[in-house]
Amino acid sequence: MLSSFRSDSSVSNTNENDAVISTFDLFSIGIGPSSSHTVGPMRAAKKFIEELKQNNVFHKITRIRIDLYGSLALTGKGHGTPNAILMGLEGETPDEIDTAKIVPRIAQIYETDILKLDGMNPIKFIPEKHIIFHYHESLPIHPNGMRFIAFDEQGDCVASSEFFSTGGGFIIGETEIHENRKNIFRKNNNDLIKQKQNAMSSAFPFSTAGELLQICKRENMTIAQMVYQNELQWRSKGEIKKKVMEIWNIMDQSIRNGCLSTVEYLPGSLKVRRRAPGLYNKLLKDMYPQNSSNYTAIKNSLLQPLAAATRKSITVNVLDVISVYAIAVNEENAAGGKVVTAPTNGASGVIPAVLKYYLEFISEQSSEKEIMDFLFTSAAIGMLYKKRASISAAEMGCQGEIGVACSMAAAAFAAVMGGTLEQIEDAAEIGMEHNLGLTCDPIDGLVQIPCIERNALGGIKALGAAQLALRSRSVAKVTLDQVIETMRQTGIDMQTKYKETSQGGLAVNVPLC
């Protein structure tokens, strides 16, 4: 008998706009190339296996079929969706999977036609046959829809579940949709909802930028301090600090991996050459021309915080620094490496690049507090976009990814530079205002062109937006709430071919050969 499982992750008495989003939901560790098409589907597949176990039918399963719809079907192959689902069905999670083992394991599945459900139950599985791409059909709820169907030995369908990947690695199930709880379903089964169901109310709930600033003024707190107080409702001080630093360390490591990579080309049909290593080498030579003969000794110097004396003795081009760091991260993402959703994989280079630039070339301390202030401030802005609009390119186009990341980074940079609440809001607004209408049109469905360069430009725009806000004396004419609503309306009006389907824009005007 066909059964549709009810998720155990729904929360009562919570509406969409008041849904609590933790910093650690918005920033989560995962693998490339896409949070909506790789991380989300892997989590959905893992969740389906858990549901099979919870309903005591896991042992009966001998066959599974996966149906992909809308954007997941149209760009899923280029985004690594099938492989992510296979790994999720085998029990892997985006934050813990060993990226070095993915390619050989996928090859083994294709060679043997054997899939090990949750790593223990081998079943016959032919990817070309059992993963169905519905290129001309979308499920009514969200363009990133997928359906999992499980069969027993007699061929009877015993279980079915639909999931929707809503951007940034977030997934929602059928139950959450029917109960009007969009945005509540968290990113993994170890989430805060499951751990502490009695502590769902945040200390300072907010749904708009206006409310956010009002609370901060009333409580005499910075945005980062307010977010921190909310996080304390769910985790201890030690846990919060540990997780923030873990997130930053992965961000920093992705910059390092991208800058020092020895792999010449990114995977996929486009044969895109990695540029971060060459750009990084040139940046070093420009900064240390007098040490060119001892280049090996300074190879790693820029990947560590620079001493104050060193900073004064070198000349740095901020555009070059932001570009190389952002490109490094997104090339790692394109190669399927480990990155942090910030707030998505496609835009994962913007925030790390701006934060690392601040720590290396501006901060006098490079302290953990500054890192926490930066990430908590950016998270607050990201929460607003997630609650009031969307961070899914399949819904909003690239304005929902690079645009949101730019807005988040601009606000955070303004904050650590000592900006007022109004200047921080203004920086976030400017960051989005000049990304409105940005399309998502990846060539051949790969998260490479134009995605990688857009991260560099997103970081540069973020700095420009913050600087403009910090130096302006006039009151902004456009509020952050207004620009978020404008982004939402623009995304709704945008044609589907410009929303992560590779059916318009660069995707159809640039020859693949």
Write structural notes for this entry:
The protein has 23 helices and 9 strands. With 513 residues, the chain is α+β, with helices and mostly antiparallel strands. Helix 16 crosses helix 21 (451-471) and helix 19 packs parallel to helix 21 (451-471). Mean pLDDT is 89; it is low at 5-19 and 178-199.
C-alpha end-to-end distance: 49 Å
The structure class reads alpha+beta
Q: Taking all residues together, what is the mean pLDDT? A: 89
Q: Show unreliable segments.
A: 5-19, 178-199
Q: Could you tell me the radius of gyration in angstroms?
A: 22 Å
Tell me the total number of β-strands.
9
How would you sum up the major sheet? 5 strands, mixed
Features:
513 residues, alpha+beta, 60s Ribosomal Protein L30, Chain: A, 2 domains, five-stranded mixed beta sheet, two-stranded antiparallel sheet, 23 helices, 9 strands
Entry summary:
It is built from 23 helices and 9 strands. With 513 residues, the chain is an alpha+beta fold.
